[in-house]
Fold this protein.
Amino acid sequence: MFNQVSAELTQAYEALQARVASLTEELAIANGELRRQFEEKEALSERLSSLLDALPAGVVLLDSSASVVAANPAAMAMFGADMVGRHWGDVARACLEPTLTVGEWLLGEGRVSIAESLLASAGGKILLIHDVTTAHRMKAELERNQRLAAMGEMAASLAHQLRTPLAAALLHTSNLGRPGVPDEVRARFSEKASGQLRRLERLIQDVLLFARGESIGRDVMAAGELLAETAQTMEPLMREHGLEFVVVDACEGAEIVGSRKALFGALVNLLENALQATPAGGKICLTGNRRGDLLAIAVRDSGPGITRETQARIFEPFFTTKGQGTGLGLAIALGVARAHGGAIELFSEPGVGAEFVMTLPIGLAESGMEEHG
């Protein structure tokens, strides 16, 4: 029995030795694989680090509390080498100023765009910062060249529009010097001459405004107040033309940033166009609605509508369907909306009226800094 047990123990020991040898071999293979994977990851990490260092765009890594954990050299060149460890909100407030374009900020003498992405595993964010100074300058130059090109193409039309009221004013003023003209006739000639000169002045102002582009300010205004001011100005004209004028304020206290004068002028222009297109007894609605981060201001009329052919050219400079129009009103209004980061859309079907909708971003001066804070 002893010999039998001894033999069994010897066999078990030999099997155990074989198993240990097998496990040792497997462990060596696993260690080699782990070492290979580690070396590959280390090489990949070095390549990624070199890529981030060479990347012209800034990359900033934030932790879950919005503190800067890491930044590449391009980001440090923008915000300073001491940004690591600081709260991103402090860095943004010290270096960035908001603009009227969503996602774009002023940084010193330049302009940057900031895009962010959530890091689900770490609970933080990664920010990608591009320098868009050159692109913004080229865009502004392109818009200016387009305005100048449009003026050059329509110079003949403009000269004709200037010549007509000027000739009429000269004719009326020449009648003032005729002997024996009664005082009431002389007064009528004087009023007609003044009217033509005022028309000339309005035309020249429109041309200068279109050529120069609207200067956008930093006024912070309540959208409801802007609607009310516009309605108060236009209501007497609507009543004089026998039109029903309805104002609906659903702005929910929204505020917009920009030029109050420019936006007011654009809305008045849209309402004047609606007034001229709507026959007596018709209806014009001015509405303001908040749509998330956007404000939609709509001008809807019950006029004859706008044909498809006219809709395709309605915002072109100097295009007009009115005998007394300059064709610059809608082009200027669209320029104002775009300068504020918004747009104007037209919805119309012939025979059922037209609706112009101006969309504008809400409160960029405040909401943008809070978002990056």
